[in-house]
Design a protein that fits this description.
Blueprint lengths: L4 H8 L9 H6 L2 E13 L3 H12 L5 E6 L4 E7 L6 E10 L2 E7 L2 E9 L3 E9 H12 L4 H12 L6 E10 L2
Antiparallel strand pairs: 1-2, 1-8, 2-3, 3-4, 4-5, 5-6, 6-7, 7-8
Helix pairs in contact: 3-5, 4-5
Length: 173
Amino acid sequence: MKLKNLIFIAIAFSLCFASCKKEDTEIIIGKWAYSQSTASIDPKNDIVNGMLNGALSQYKPDQLSITFNKDNTYIIVMAFGGENPITFSGIYTLENGKINIALYQDTKIGVNYSLSKKEMTLTYIVNTNDIVGLYDMIKEFLDEESVVSLDNIIKRLNGINSITLTSDFNKEK
C-alpha cells in the first residue's frame, strides 16, 4: 500500500465524539458512502482554515465508501481523478469512543466517531509532525492551482499544533 493512500484512509476515518455503546456495534454494520470533509487548525486561524477548506473542496473523491461487517472486518473502496478504485480491507474494533483500524502490518489508526442510524462522522487529528507528510501525500492528486494554494498554507503552518480532518458519511441501504 502506498503511503499517499493513508491520507484517504485518514479522511475516511475522521470524526468527533466518543463512547462505544452496544448499539454502536449494531449501527455501524453496513456500507457508508462519503459525503463531505472539512478541516480546521489549532490554534484557530481563519485565513489558513479558509485556504485549507478551499483546497479540500477540490479534493472530492470520485468514490469513497467504507463497509463495516459483523465479523469486525472492514472494506474501503476509493477512487480519485478518474482512476480505477483501490480497495483496502482489514480488521476494526470499537473501543473507548474510537474506531481502531488495522491498515497493514503494524500500522493502525484510531479516529473518534459519532453515529446515528443513517449518518456517521469521523474525526482524525493530524499533529504538526505529520502535516508536511500529509501535504506530500495529497499534492500528487491535486491540480496546479490547488498545489499553489496548499503551498501558501504550508508557509503559514509555523505555530500550528494540529489539523483536524472531519468527514461525513451516509449509510447506504
